[in-house]
Amino acid sequence: MNVFLDFEQQIAELEAKIEELRHLADGGEVNIADEVTKLQTKADRLLRQTYQDLAPWQKIQVARHPERPHFTDYVARLIEDYTPFAGDRTFADDKAILGGLGRFRGRSCVVIGTEKGTDTEGRVAHNFGMARPEGYRKAQRLMELADRFHLPVITLVDTPGAYPGVGAEERGQAEAIARCIDACLAIEVPFVAAIIGEGGSGGAIALAAADRVIMLEHSVYSVISPEGCASILWRSADKAQTAADALKLTAQDMERMKLVDEVVREPLGGAHRDKDSTVRAVGDAVERTLGELRGTGGKELLRLRREKYMAIGAEGLA
Question: What is the domain-level CATH number for residue 268?
Fold first, then answer.
């Protein structure tokens, strides 16, 4: 059963009516094919009108949709012979960040990503995609492994941010994120990051300081969540929609400000409506981007990556 968002209620009502009529038709009671066709056309038109101009807060809702494809969906469909790695060799294994070795369309690689979980039990196990320090140290370990064996790195980011708990802070959350970003900027292999849902704060940047950053059409990328921003500025999370408008966090904003390199189109109605085509589109973009980076020497990759991030915001300072 589809999960509909607040702004999709009219679409939900139409699709429920279509399902009801199809159920009647399956029972052989009446031929209502023409009526189903009319309603389906109306639902498709309404869906297209709704999604052609989503507000930032609506984009956030789509990016957070519980049925949106997650890291494990991408790995299952894109990575062959996937071998997961566990632990940071220091404290524990963090389930919010997963990663390992595999083959992406015939080429060996290291793949790392944040996983939110798909049901209540999974969300608790993966801490809703909010990594602790050991998660970032595991990611750093995998990046250094990729560098040692000259393997490209692919990261898939979907996190509201790093876990802000007391234990995480006691174990050096900020330092772990900083060292993970440093590892991103230091590896001498092709590195492609994809924002597939939420790209929240330093928790996302720790896996996304890549040679190329691609972003799904209805994903978001921001220094802080709208709720967090509203709590700081207005002392109330009720202003989250206002904060979302001000933060300029949509994929289109990111592309316009040259903070990401490519926006990948989603199926009409969001990635959750067609997981297979979404994963395939992201895979195609990653494959194309890795092809562009192939053949570039390690030192040249470092130079270009450094110039890429040093250039961000430079126009505003000129």
Answer: 3.90.226.10
pLDDT tens per residue across span 60-89: 999 999 999 999 999 999 999 999 999 999
Whether residue 103 is contained in a domain is answered as yes
Residue 156: alpha-carbon gap to chain centroid: 6
Q: Are residues 48 and 68 in the same domain?
A: no
Q: Which domain holds residue 307?
A: 60-317
Whether residues 296 and 257 fall in one domain: yes
| Number of domains making up the chain | 2
Q: Is the pLDDT of residue 56 over 50?
A: yes
Cα–Cα distance for residue pair 78/30, rounded to 1 Å: 44
Hey, is 179 helix, strand or coil? helix
Tokens of 244: 């979302």
Q: Are residues 245 and 109 in the same domain?
A: yes
**Alpha carbon of 212 to those of 16, 87, 207, 285: distances in Å?**
41, 27, 12, 10
Query: What pLDDT sits at residue 31?
Result: 61
Give me the percent of the chain exceeding a pLDDT of 70: 96
Residue 27 lies in a domain: yes
- The half-sphere exposure of 9 on its side-chain side, counting CA atoms within 13 A, is 2
Beta strands 262-264 and 212-216, pairing class = parallel
Q: Where are the alpha helices (DSSP H) in the chain?
A: 9-26, 33-51, 56-63, 71-78, 120-125, 133-148, 166-170, 173-186, 201-205, 226-233, 240-247, 251-256, 275-293, 298-310, 314-317
pLDDT at 164 over 50: yes
| Residue 155 maps to a domain | yes
Give first-to-last CA distance, the chain, whole Å. Answer: 53
Of 291, 270, 275, nearest in space to 192 by CA: 291
